[in-house]
Design goal:
The protein has 236 residues and is of the alpha/beta class. The chain is built from nine helices and eight strands. An eight-stranded parallel sheet has the order 7-6-5-4-3-2-1-8. Helix 1 crosses helix 2. The structure holds pyridoxal-5'-phosphate.
Length: 236
């Protein structure tokens, strides 16, 4: 029974990597321009280890507390952690230095707090700005129409590097329906890049999850965040 479960994770990792490759080829992109972030919320250390054995190298956590217990279990240099969940300002201090990239920065106050805490720690923190690409009333993220102003207000940060944008489109039944949102995020990134703000580079587009990462890649995703397609359905 145990080995069956382990095989399943390994097979799923290979299958997701193969689909990433073919989505890249389909649109003439280099597969090296796309990185898989395995979303590991609620997934046990043992299951994550299986995934790492099978080729995962970037792990994305949503909750600070959960991440703090998992990160020490993987102290190999081949594993990198990203933060992809809602980050509270009061938790910023405890995450500085742990994550190569924070995908989910959704307010000016949060950017400033990260800048301050990274400065205190003598570090630079790479972040993405989360965009509420579907203008959903209850969803986190900056409004697309506000992005130009927001980014120009952030221009002078000394310990934060803005590397790109992240979005979670409104839920859709079929992946094709997410395509216009992915396209819109890509266009927004290009618009921001054209402004040449200091310490703002639009190199990364974090978009696409288990149901729609292939479409996201066709629309320019450089980071896809995939959970259930690798680890199975979450029960909590
Ligand atoms: C859980 C999660 C994912 C992965 O979702 P799946 O549908 O399981 O692939 C991606 N991004 C974020 C921010 C998440 O919280």
């Amino acid at each position: 029974m145990e080995s069956l479960v382990q095989d399943t994770i390994a097979i799923r990792v290979q299958s997701v990597l193969a689909k990433i490759r073919s989505a890249a080829e389909k649109t003439g992109r280099s597969v090296h321009s796309i990185r898989l972030v395995a979303a590991t919320k609620t997934v046990s250390i043992r299951q994550i280890e299986e995934g790492v054995q099978a080729g995962l190298s970037i792990l994305g956590e949503n909750r600070v507390q959960e991440a703090l217990t998992k990160i020490p279990a993987f102290n190999h240099s081949s594993v990198h952690w990203h933060f992809i969940g809602n980050l509270q300002r009061r938790k910023v201090r405890s995450v500085i230095g742990l994550f190569d990239l924070i995908h989910s920065v959704d307010s000016l106050e949060l950017v400033k707090e990260i800048d301050r805490r990274a400065g205190e720690a003598g570090r630079k923190q790479d972040v993405l700005l989360e965009v509420n690409i579907g203008n959903e009333p209850t969803k986190a993220g900056f409004r697309p129409d506000d992005m130009r102003q927001i980014v120009s207000d952030m221009g002078c940060l000394s310990h934060v590097c803005i590397k790109g944008l992240m979005a979670i489109p409104p839920p859709t039944v079929d992946p094709e329906s997410a395509r216009p949102y992915f396209r819109k995020l890509n266009e927004l990134a290009k618009m921001i890049d054209a402004q040449h703000f200091p310490s703002v580079r639009m190199d990364e587009l974090s978009m696409g999850m288990s149901n729609d990462y292939e479409v996201a890649i066709e629309e320019g995703a450089t980071l896809v965040r995939v959970g259930s397609a690798i680890f199975g359905a979450r029960h909590v």
